[in-house]
């Protein structure tokens, strides 16, 4: 074959490949433009849908819609009820919107709405508890209580039996359903055979309004778990930053709650606890001994410290297996934001003050000064 013919074939191949490359580029460009258009159109459509869902169902309506929000309802439950009654357009948008805005503390009860309300107006009513009736019961659960103590309060204030409450919160099948329903705060850690009461520490200390004459135990438990979830959700990133699981954070917060009486003390004691854990020293906190014993005592004896229990922090060089009481929000804040110090020891004097020290020698000197 002549050089001229070879050159001609080469040139034809080059032109062919060039045309193929241009065709491929055109196809790729068309695909990319199509994908971008799909994303843009989808985004605009989604935005318009969400914007529409946040607006009133019927801006001109003046008709009253009576709605009952049962005690223990989650934001998902409330959204479904409101959509079904025609108060809002979309329950899913309501649920995501309340989570995005970190809205919680919705009040159970009977409400009067209209379909002319925006979602923000509905949320405000639910938060303020603008209901048609006063609560039948108002019950305050203080910080630092065990499930057993809380069951006693409910039995005293409500038409339920203490034993029935305790039996229900210890019922394995029920606890498993709660783990499925509250996966952000409850884990299988609470199902350990060594855990005394699975929901210990997870029933939040607060004042609760109850609008039913005979509320169920399930409704009470879920009302409290909703409050716990609302509080913990604000601190999830901080808990992770402290390299804690939710269960560990709740456990530590319960120890801080039992050992301290003020916000300043809580942060200092949390710092001491972390210092001990860092050097592999047992936490050695007396409230865990009392919880392991299952009784209240004014003074923990040396023989009490010997009890072999995964709750006894004289026996285990780690956090106890689970919480020993419920906690207040300030104890949780101290848990995720402890005071930095070199203190390893602390002791309470008879006036409620706490004295800290870096060495055992200093600690013993403080004992001689402040404890008779």
UniProtKB/TrEMBL annotation:
The chain crosses the membrane at residues 27-47. It is a single-pass membrane protein. The record marks 259 as: Important for catalytic activity. Its EC number is 4.2.2.29. It catalyses: a peptidoglycan chain = a peptidoglycan chain with N-acetyl-1,6-anhydromuramyl-[peptide] at the reducing end + a peptidoglycan chain with N-acetylglucosamine at the non-reducing end. Gene3D superfamilies: Endolytic murein transglycosylase. The keyword Endoplasmic reticulum does not apply. Its main location: membrane. Keywords: Cell membrane, Cell wall biogenesis/degradation, Lyase, Membrane, Transmembrane, Transmembrane helix. It is an enzyme of class 4 (lyase). The keyword Ribonucleoprotein does not apply. It is found in: Cell membrane. InterPro entries: MLTG-like. CDD domains: MltG_like (cd08010). Functions as a peptidoglycan terminase that cleaves nascent peptidoglycan strands endolytically to terminate their elongation. Belongs to the transglycosylase MltG family. This is Endolytic murein transglycosylase. It comes from Virgibacillus byunsanensis.
